[in-house]
Amino acid sequence: MRDIRNIVILTGAGISAESGLRTFRAEDGLWEDHPVEEVATPEGFARDPDLVQRFYDERRAGILAARPNAAHEALGRLDASWEGELLIVTQNIDDLHERGGADRVLHMHGEALSVWCTACDARHRWTGTLRDGPPCPSCGQVAMRPDIVWFGEMPYQMDRIFHALSGADLFLSIGTSGAVYPAAGFVQHARESGVRTLELNLETSLGSRLFDETRLGRASELVPLWVDEVLG
Ligand code: NAD
């Protein structure tokens, strides 16, 4: 690890699993017992906005009640002392990286604790509910939706992510199934840019064969060990 200076880390639902937040695809393609097309697509929202607002109200409450685990805290420790470039790209909509002490975090799929007004385009931090149709604090219209990137929508800051990947020495993937694109394609991009690749996951994923190395186990154990290795 001595020649590593610039690091890009991709995290998925697996890093938050030990904080009590359920993963997504797991066995059945359901997210908290809902088919994803019902709660994570613009079409699902158009069809039944109340159901979708209630779903994210529950996710928001669950996230507020959860606590970062040893994996989030280890990445916070890395961020605090790493002098090279570091970008933690998360697919997660929770804020456990930030509460674990990390600053250099990019939420490519949006954030549960942010809402987006489709009338005036303002974004606000939000810890309450949306099911009751609160007016936007900026424009007063009732047009706020969760600030989440749904299937069929463009993830945030892709140019910045690919730029960081191209200049990285190491790409590390933690707790992601490799089923959701474009994040699942980052390992291929890293390989083509000559970047070393390492995967930490509970079990082999769809992308495992593309990584230089895969370590299997729980994020709360593997991530602190890896951070010790890279800092030591
Ligand atoms: P996923 O649910 O498709 O896959 C989770 C992966 O984590 C699996 O490969 C699994 O083996 C692994 N895993 C499970 N427990 C683990 C542990 N303790 N340690 C290490 N690895 C573990 O997740 P994804 O690839 O992130 O895709 C899901 C999508 O759903 C994302 O886009 C995300 O926005 C959304 N989502 C977010 C949250 C959250 O914010 N916490 C939770 C569920 C889903």
Describe this structure in words.
With 232 residues, the chain is of the alpha/beta class. Helix content is 31%, strand content 21%. It has 8 helices and 11 strands. The strands form 3 sheets. A 6-stranded parallel sheet has the order 5-4-1-9-10-11, sandwiched between helices. A 3-stranded antiparallel sheet has the order 7-6-8. Strand 9 (170-174), helix 7 and strand 10 form a beta-alpha-beta unit. The N and C termini lie close together (9 Å). The model has no long low-confidence stretch (mean pLDDT 95). The protein binds nicotinamide-adenine-dinucleotide.
Provide a brief overview of the structure:
The chain is built from 8 helices and 11 strands.
Alpha carbon gap, first and last residue: 9 Å
Query: What is the number of beta strands?
Result: 11
> Which class do the helix and strand fractions yield?
alpha/beta
Attached small molecules: nicotinamide-adenine-dinucleotide
- The SSE string, one letter per element, is EEEHHHHEHEEEEHEHEEH
Strand content: 15-25%
Sheet of most strands: 6 strands, parallel
Integer-rounded radius of gyration: 18 Å
Overall body shape: globular
Number of helices: 8
Overall helicity: 25-40%
Mean pLDDT: 95
Short key terms for the protein model shown above:
232 residues, alpha/beta, six-stranded parallel β-sheet, three-stranded antiparallel β-sheet, globular, binds nicotinamide-adenine-dinucleotide
Task: Annotate the secondary structure layout.
Blueprint: E1 7-11, E2 30-31, E3 34-35, H1 36-39, H2 42-47, H3 49-65, H4 70-81, E4 86-90, H5 96-99, E5 105-107, E6 110-117, E7 123-125, E8 144-148, H6 158-166, E9 170-174, H7 186-192, E10 196-201, E11 213-216, H8 219-231
Parallel strand pairs: 1-4, 1-9, 4-5, 9-10, 10-11
Antiparallel strand pairs: 2-3, 6-7, 6-8
Helix pairs in contact: 4-8
This protein binds nicotinamide-adenine-dinucleotide.
Nicotinamide-adenine-dinucleotide is lined by residues 12-14, 16-18, 21, 23-26, 31, 91-94, 109, 175-177, 179-180, 201-203, 205, 218-219.
